[in-house]
Amino acid sequence: YLNYKDDYAVDIIIDVYNYSDSKPVQTVQLKEAYPISVNDVNLDWGNNNQLLKVQTTFTFTEWTLLTDTFTV
């Protein structure tokens, strides 16, 4: 089943947080982004009530740094 890129490519906003604050320290926008790979996810009854991490690789046409308030 195939579609045109305009049917699935979207703009994505990524907020980066640090450990000590609840506000994002950086915000990046990816234009016309879509996933090109999603890794396998191991499911196990022993991992009940745990966060699920899914490693995904995206491609995009351009990126923009919307905010940069990162301080060390």
Could you outline the blueprint of secondary structure elements for this entry?
Blueprint: H1 5-8, E1 10-16, E2 26-38, E3 56-59, E4 62-68
Antiparallel strand pairs: 1-2, 2-3, 2-4
Structure notes:
The chain is 6% helix and 43% strand. By secondary structure, the protein is mainly β. Strands 1, 2, 3 and 4 form a four-stranded antiparallel sheet that branches. It is flat and about 40 Å long.
Tertiary shape: flat
Helix content: under 10%
Q: Please state the CA-atom Rg, rounded to the nearest Å.
A: 16 Å
Number of helices: 1
H/E series, N to C? Answer: HEEEE
Percentage of residues in DSSP E strands: 35-45%
Q: Helix- and strand-based class? A: mainly beta
Sheet of most strands: 4 strands, antiparallel
What is the arithmetic mean of pLDDT?
88
C-alpha termini separation: 47 Å
Tally of strands: 4
- Unreliable spans are none
What are the key terms here?
single chain, 72 residues, mainly beta, 4-stranded antiparallel β-sheet, 1 helix, 4 strands
Structure in a nutshell:
Helices cover 6% and strands 43% of the residues. It is mainly β. Strands 1, 2, 3 and 4 form a 4-stranded antiparallel beta sheet that branches.
